[in-house]
Amino acid sequence: MAGIGIGWCLRRRQLPFLGRLINVFIWLLLFLLGVEVGGDRRIVEGMASLGGEALAVAAGGVAGSCLLAWLLWRWAGRGKGARKNER
Fold it and tell me: The pTM is what?
């Protein structure tokens, strides 16, 4: 909530450094997440099975996204083509 309030108060100001600051914090958070995961013995020992599951979930997510994007493209294009023929 504090971040939303600060953002609302500063919404009219130009903050060119903010993009870089956000990137630094994201990289810091990712690094700390890696440290935390690497320090957990159960996760490190189960990395092989977790890696396979993660690959399956990622592949399913990409395949589903591509399929739905293709369907949306066809659906949106159909309406566009019909409008061209009416003119």
Answer: 0.48
